[in-house]
Amino acid sequence: MLVAARLGASRLAPWVSTSSQRYLSSGSTSGSTDRSHEKPEMFQLKHVQARLEHTVPLMFRERLDYTFYRKDVIVDNQIINVQRQGIYQIMGHLSTFSVLGQVFFPHIEMSVLSILPILDDGTVRLRWRIHYLSFFRALNLLNFKYDYRIKNLKWYDGYSVFHVDGNGLVSKFTIQRTMPDDSYQREKTTAQKIAEKIGVLPGAATNFVKAERPRGPKEEN
């Protein structure tokens, strides 16, 4: 079976990506050896990365690619606090959001902001963005012009972590909201944290208390 997989990969070479060629030639899809409890190799992570780069923009356009997921894959949707397990459950879960998005928004699309394979923990980390136009904003006649509409789309940012097993298949992935970075929120140093614990410095909550303006002589009377 391993030989057959390698022969099949060589025949498909002109039509598949470089990551897919290496993934097929490795024999990971042959099922001869179960490495589901092992960590993936970098080329397997890059294969998932390539598949995500191709399939994420198709979220609201056509059927997604589920060939690189395990049959017992788990999704943890932290945006709506829902978990699903099983490839068919995942397909139904994502299809529901795809249909609802197309029903409630006259213009909606999804794009990849960044995608990074991490070998240390065997994950592929994806930052994505949904661009959309509501029906209320669509009433503006200027939005009938494509260039104007694209420049004025609203967006929703999210973050997903795909856990990949030793067979090169996604075993679990998360869906969560990316919180915006506030200018006033800065990472505290270790000295500041220790000082707050022993009471030398006030806690961060006191930073939001307005300072009282000193009263003049007339105001005191």
Please describe what this structure looks like.
- This protein is an alpha+beta fold and 221 residues long.
- The chain has a domain at 42-181: Nuclear Transport Factor 2, Chain: A, CATH 3.10.450.50.
- Helices cover 33% and strands 25% of the residues.
- It has eight helices and six strands; from the N terminus they run αααββαββααββαα.
- It has helices spanning 2-12, 18-25, 42-55, 87-104, 135-138, 146-151, 190-197, 217-220; strands spanning 69-77, 82-85, 107-118, 123-133, 154-164, 170-177.
- The protein has a six-stranded mixed beta sheet with strand order 2-1-6-5-4-3.
- Strand 5 and strand 6 (170-177) form a beta hairpin.
- Helix 1 runs antiparallel to helix 2 (18-25) and helix 2 crosses helix 3 (42-55).
- It starts with a helix and ends with a helix.
- 17% of the residues are buried.
- Mean pLDDT is 75; it is low at 1-31, 180-189 and 197-212.
Produce a short descriptive summary.
The protein has 221 residues and is an alpha+beta fold. Helices cover 33% and strands 25% of the residues.
Based on DSSP secondary structure assignment, what is the total number of beta strands? Answer: 6
Strand order of the largest sheet: 2-1-6-5-4-3
Integer-rounded radius of gyration: 25 Å
Task: Report the structural category.
Answer: alpha+beta
State the helical fraction. Answer: 25-40%
Terminal Cα separation, in Å?
Answer: 95 Å
- Unreliable spans are 1-31, 180-189, 197-212
Tally of DSSP helical segments: 8
Order of helices and strands: HHHEEHEEHHEEHH
Give me the CATH fold name of one domain: Nuclear Transport Factor 2, Chain: A
Taken from the alpha-carbon principal axes, the silhouette is elongated
Please name the CATH architecture of one domain.
Roll
Q: Biggest sheet, open or closed, and with what strands and sense?
A: 6 strands, mixed
How much of the residues is beta strand, in percent?
A: 15-25%
CATH C-level of one domain: Alpha Beta
Output mean pLDDT: 75
Organism: Steinernema glaseri
InterPro entries: DUF2358
Protein name: DUF535 domain-containing protein
